[in-house]
Amino acid sequence: MTNPWFLIVIAGLLETGWALGLKYSEGFSKPIPSTLTVIGALASFYLLSLAMRDIPVGTAYAVWVGIGAVGTAVAAVILFGEPISALRTAGILLIIGGIVALKLA
User: Fold this and answer.
1) Fewest beta carbons less than 10 Å away: which of 25, 52, 60, 97?
2) Mean per-residue pLDDT for 50-64?
3) Alpha carbon separation from 53 to 4, 5, 68, 91, 98 (Å, rounded)
């Protein structure tokens, strides 16, 4: 069986992908980005559900959301030139700290 933490990481990365895909799909008006977004979301949900077989739901969901939020925030700075500030960086670091704490708990 695959390590549930590996599944959560992949699911979180897919969440980042489909969140970014929402931007590229322009309100689901572009067929290819829209299709890739839906596929990414379904794959992310599926892997999250598999991980929840072995990881408590609260922990699994929080880690999944955290990975997706951090990944999306960082990618948005790189891909879309969104502003980065000390406060935004601190927020991202706090989310990462929360993910690590949940993993260790």
Assistant:
1) 97
2) 95
3) 8, 11, 20, 30, 21
